[in-house]
C-alpha cells in the first residue's frame, strides 16, 4: 500500500531524577535536563493504516528531525510499504553518503520500525509473534537504569535500594567512581545485579585499571555484572578486548551502527554482552539480526533502550521473541505523567498482549498535544 504521509513528532515529558540533575553527558548539557523527549514518526498508508517508529534521541533530536523532515521522509512518500526489505534497502543505499551513524541512521531506524509496525498490523499479529515469539501474551522483565547523580552516593544508594525493593533484577548506574559503585553494591542484596555504564571516558590503560579494581571487589555480594563502554573512543574494539582480559565483563554496542560493525566488534573480542539500540542502528530489521549473531558467538544480547517511545516498545517485542528473553532497559525516572500505557518505570514487569497487533503502541493524543515540542507532517 502507498505511503501517503509521515508525521514527525517531538514530545518531551517533564521528569524527576530521584536525585541531583546532572544530565547523562557531563560537558554536553548547557541547561539542566528537565524533559525526557521522544522523536516519533507516524507513517500513514492510503488505506488509513498507521505505523509508529522512534529515532534517537534526546539532545540529538533536532538533527534527526531535520534529516527526516527535509530529506528522508519525503523520499518515502508515494512508495509501496509492503516490500519492506526492498524499500529499506533502497533507502539505505540512497542515503549512506550522509552518515552510516548518527542522525541519518536514527531517522532510517524510526521509519524501519514504523514499517514493521505496519507489517504486523496487516498480519493482525503483535510484532513479537511476527518475529517468532510465543502465541499468547508475554511478560517482559525490565531493569532499572538510573540517572547520573554525579557521584552523589546518597542518591545512588537510595535509588538502588528503591529499585531492588520494587523487584528489579538489575540496577544500572551511570556513575564513574568507585565510592558510587560501592554505594550501589552495598545497598542492593546479592541477588540483584549491579552494572556500571560509564559512557566512554577512559584510555585503555585507565579502563584496565578500573576493571582490575572491580575484579578485586567480586567478594562483595558477587561484585558487578558488567562495565559498559569504558573506553574512548567507543569503536576501539581492540582496546576493549584488552580491557576484557582483566576478567570483568565488558558490554557495549549502543554506539555500534550496523550489522557489519557488530560483526567487527565480535570478531575483535570486544564484548561479553552486546547492547544494540533499535532507534540507532537501523530499526527492527537490523536489530532482529543482532540477536542470533550475538548468540552464535556465545554473547548475551541486552539491548540499549534508554528512551520511552515506539522504539522502547519495539525493543520489548524483540526481546519477547527470543528463545531466552533478556531484560529491558528502562530509565528509572518519575514522569510527570507516564507517556503511554506500556511504560511504567517502577514496575519490573511489562505485559505484551496477543490482542494488540503491531507494536500495540496506543498514542495518547491529548498527552502528546500537551507536551508537544514540534510537529511536522510530510505528504
Ligand atoms: Mg549505555
Give structural notes.
- The protein has 379 residues and is an alpha/beta fold.
- It folds into two domains: 3-124 and 364-378, Enolase-like, N-terminal domain (Enolase-like, domain 1, 2-Layer Sandwich); 129-352, Alpha-Beta Barrel (TIM Barrel), CATH 3.20.20.120.
- Helices cover 36% and strands 20% of the residues.
- The protein contains twelve helices and 14 strands.
- The strands form two sheets. Strands 4, 5, 6, 7, 8, 9, 10, 11 and 13 form a nine-stranded mixed β-sheet that branches. Strands 1, 2, 3, 12 and 14 form a five-stranded antiparallel β-sheet that branches.
- Helix 7 (204-216) packs parallel to helix 8.
- The two termini are 15 Å apart.
- The mean pLDDT is 96.
- The protein binds magnesium ion.
Brief summary of the model shown:
The protein has 379 residues and is α/β, with parallel strands linked by helices. The protein is built from twelve helices and 14 strands.
Q: Notable features of this structure?
A:
single chain, 379 residues, alpha/beta, Enolase-like, domain 1, TIM Barrel, binds magnesium ion
Summarize the SSE layout with pairings.
Layout: E1 3-16, E2 35-45, E3 50-55, H1 61-76, H2 84-95, H3 103-123, H4 127-130, E4 138-145, H5 153-166, E5 170-173, H6 178-187, E6 193-197, H7 204-216, E7 226-228, H8 237-244, E8 250-252, H9 259-268, E9 273-274, H10 284-296, E10 300-301, H11 310-320, E11 328-331, E12 334-335, E13 349-352, H12 365-370, E14 372-378
Amino acid at each position: 500500500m502507498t505511503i501517503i504521509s509521515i508525521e514527525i513528532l517531538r514530545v518531551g515529558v517533564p521528569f524527576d531524577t530521584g536525585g541531583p540533575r546532572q544530565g547523562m553527558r557531563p560537558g554536553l548539557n548547557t541547561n539542566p535536563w528537565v524533559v525526557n523527549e521522544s522523536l516519533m514518526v507516524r507513517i500513514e498508508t492510503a488505506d488509513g493504516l498507521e505505523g509508529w517508529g522512534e529515532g534517537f534521541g534526546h539532545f540529538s533530536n533536532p538533527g534527526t528531525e531535520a534529516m527526516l523532515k527535509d530529506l528522508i521522509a519525503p523520499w518515502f512518500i508515494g512508495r509501496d510499504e509492503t516490500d519492506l526489505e526492498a524499500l529499506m534497502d533502497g533507502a539505505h543505499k540512497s542515503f549512506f553518503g550522509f552518515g552510516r551513524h548518527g542522525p541519518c541512521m536514527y531517522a532510517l531506524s524510526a521509519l524501519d520500525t514504523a514499517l514493521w509496525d505496519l507489517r504486523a498490523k496487516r498480519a493482525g499479529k503483535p510484532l513479537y509473534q511476527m518475529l517468532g515469539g510465543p502465541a499468547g501474551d508475554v511478560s517482559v522483565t525490565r531493569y532499572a537504569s538510573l540517572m547520573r547523580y554525579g557521584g552523589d552516593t546518597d542518591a545512588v544508594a537510595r535509588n538502588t535500594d528503591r529499585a531492588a525493593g520494587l523487584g528489579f533484577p538489575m540496577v544500572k548506574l551511570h556513575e564513574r567512581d568507585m565510592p558510587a559503585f560501592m554505594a550501589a553494591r552495598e545497598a542492593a542484596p546479592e541477588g540483584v545485579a549491579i552494572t556500571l555504564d560509564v559512557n566512554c571516558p577512559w584510555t585503555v590503560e585507565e579502563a584496565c585499571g578500573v576493571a582490575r579494581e572491580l575484579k578485586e571487589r567480586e567478594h562483595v555480594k558477587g561484585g558487578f555484572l558488567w562495565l559498559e563502554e569504558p573506553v574512548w573512543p567507543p569503536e576501539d574494539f581492540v582496546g576493549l578486548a584488552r580491557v576484557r582480559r582483566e576478567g570483568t565483563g565488558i558490554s557495549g554496542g549502543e554506539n555500534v551502527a550496523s550489522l557489519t560493525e557488530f560483526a567487527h566488534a565480535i570478531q575483535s573480542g570486544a564484548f561479553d554482552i552486546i547492547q544494540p539500540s533499535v532507534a540507532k542502528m537501523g530499526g527492527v530489521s537490523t536489530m532482529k539480526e543482532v540477536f542470533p549473531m550475538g548468540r552464535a558467538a556465545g554473547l548475551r544480547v541486552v539491548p540499549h533502550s534508554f528512551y520511552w517511545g515506539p522504539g522502547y516498545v519495539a525493543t520489548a517485542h524483540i526481546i519477547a521473541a527470543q528463545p531466552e528473553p533478556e531484560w529491558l532497559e528502562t530509565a528509572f525516572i518519575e514522569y510527570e505523567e507516564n507517556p503511554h500505557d506500556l511504560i511504567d518505570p517502577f514496575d519490573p514487569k511489562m505485559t505484551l498482549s496477543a490482542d494488540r497487533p503491531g507494536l500495540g503502541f496506543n498514542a495518547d493524543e491529548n498527552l502528546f498535544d500537551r507536551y508537544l515540542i514540534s510537529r511536522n507532517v510530510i505528504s
